[in-house]
Amino acid sequence: MKIILQIAVALTLLFGQKNALAQCGNDQTPPDPQLVDSLSYDPLTGDLIIGWQENPAGDACWYYIFYKNPITGSNDIIDSVPANASGNYIYNITGNNASNQVEAYAIGVKDCCNNQMFTILDYHRSMLLQGTLDKCDTAVNLIWNAYKWFNSGTNVLYQVYVSQNGNPFAYLGSTTDTVFQHKPVGDNTVNVYYIRVVENGGAGPFTASSTIFTITIDLLNPVQFLDLYTVSVKDSSTITITFIPDLTAGTKKYYIKRAYAESHVFTDIQEVLYSPASQVTVYDVTAKPAEEKYKYEIWAEDSCGKFSKKSNLGTNILLKIEKDNLLLQNTLTWNNYRNWKGGVNQYNIYRAQDSPNGYYQLVDRIFVNQQPADDTVYTYVDDVSDLLDGNGKFCYYIEAEETTTDHYGVAGMAYSLSNKVCVDLDPIVYIPNAFNPFSEVDENRVFIPVAGLYDPLSFELTIYDRWGHELFYSNENTKGWNGKDKHGKLCPTGVYIYNFKITSIYGDPFEYNGRITLLY
Q1: Contact 78, 65 (CB under 8 A)
Q2: Quick one: CATH architecture of 129-217?
Q3: Measured between alpha carbons, how far is residue 300 from residues 26, 249, 312, 313, 430 in Å?
Q4: 319-424: which CATH topology?
Q5: Which architecture does CATH list for 428-518?
Q6: Rounded CA gap, 274 and 265, in Å?
Q7: Residue 105 and residue 99: Cα distance in Å, rounded?
Q8: For residue 247, what are the contacts with CB-CB under 8 A and spacing of at least 6?
Q9: Which CATH architecture has domain 6-125?
Q10: Which one of 207, 234, 239, 313 is CB 3.0 to 4.6 Å from 287, fit for a cystine?
């Protein structure tokens, strides 16, 4: 029975086909060219979906899906679909490459008499959506190829949709152009976009969808901090500037700016390109740290060329000294350091004796109980009356010490050094006003000035009478006047004139004139 039934079915199909062909007769008229309604991209499956309606000729038996080969330009058939009773068709094109390139598809048609329309094809092209992130403008710029194959013409409206972080798609806006800017965009989001195009300027009924474009929004991180860690004097012509940058920010370069302490006008003295260093040190070699007070700032420029942050101020410490040869004191004055993150805790005073390159000792500290005014001047008097066994040279510098502070995990409290300043005390001279060659005290029998901090080889002592006649001369610092003239004769009691000349250790001449009384 089964074999007989199969034969019967086969015969029925054969006779049916023969009947259909017999009805065709001399019909050689091909169907009308097949129009395509739309070509869309399905973001869920990645398929292209092509849609069309029944061929106007009304005798279509098969529809063929054509692909325009982008390499050869040939019209390749990729599949066929039999006619159905509804007259509406949708076909999913799997295995396409529409997410990377624009692809073109059309529908060919064949009637039941084997007449075909494969020469006039209504190709529709997929819409490839692309985009870029403009970090400087905080915007996503979208671009796509125009969809101009609706049967009604090229009068279309493009509607833009976005899904953020997996949320449902939301409508952004529309345009008749093929570009669109989404601005501003939020940071640290994943945005998925697609374009929906509607024919007749948005009236429909047909629509098509583009491929999706996915982008992770990673905007420039703003500079959270820019810490001018310290400004410190390196030597007589160089100031060191060290700052701590925010390495998480999108910084392109830094500008080192300087102004005079009393001015508000900053000028650029150096540019530093961004590097991943946790501390950056630069040197101002155009400064005069022994003469001028400066203030510094660091400005950060982001990769968009915009100034994004400026640092706190930093100032060099300018130390000045005045000497008092009478009281044997050196008075130090210096300006307040500003503006540390932790403020100034104390100023340490260092002194070296006899040489600017000698050993500096900490001689005292000045503690800062509360942050002073910006223009505060500190004064310290150093008594050196018990330090005259050297050559009279005293050199100083000030060290500012910050209150214990953490600088963003990069460094601890900071220090700043002033310029070094030296002073030379003048020779210290004691000249008696009378003497007696026959005194019972040995020291009172000879007139000789007592001097310190001078060059012994420069000693000159001359004695004159009241008429200006020279009575005595000595260039030995151990030989004084014993009251006798050049001929060895004792001079009479009375008042005489002396002239005393010496040179300091540093070559400065000193001359003393006065009266000495000779007694017996």
Answers
A1: yes
A2: Sandwich (2.60)
A3: 85, 10, 12, 14, 63
A4: Immunoglobulin-like (2.60.40)
A5: Sandwich (2.60)
A6: 25
A7: 15
A8: 276, 278
A9: Sandwich (2.60)
A10: 239
Compute the distance between CA of residue 244 and CA of residue 111 in angstroms, rounded to an integer.
80
The Cα 413–Cα 402 span in angstroms is 5
Q: pTM of the prediction?
A: 0.71
410-439 pLDDT, tens digit per residue, is 999 999 999 999 999 999 999 999 999 999
Domain boundaries, the chain: 6-125, 129-217, 226-315, 319-424, 428-518
Q: How far apart are CA 146 and CA 129, in angstroms?
A: 10
**What is the structure's pLDDT at 505?**
84
The token duo for 265 is 């006008």
**Encoded amino acid at 111, one letter:** D
Q: Tokens 């058939």 — which residue?
A: 77
pLDDT of 20: 45
212 with 194: CB under 8 angstroms? yes
Q: What are phi and psi of 30, to 5 degrees?
A: -75, 160
Asked if the domains 6-125 and 226-315 are classified in one and the same CATH topology, the answer is: yes
| pLDDT per position as a tens digit, 11-24 | 333 333 334 444 68
Nearby residues of 398 by Cβ (< 8 Å), 6 or more positions away: 317, 319, 332, 334, 347, 348, 349, 350, 417, 418
How many residues would you count in the chain? 520
The highest-level CATH class for domain 226-315 is mainly beta
181 burial (CB, 10 Å; 0-12 / 13-18 / 19+) is middle
Task: Output b/e per residue, 47-60; b: 16+ Cβ within 10 A.
Answer: bbbbbbebbebebb
Q: What region, left, alpha or beta, does residue 305 occupy, with left being phi > 0 and alpha being psi -120 to 50 degrees?
A: left
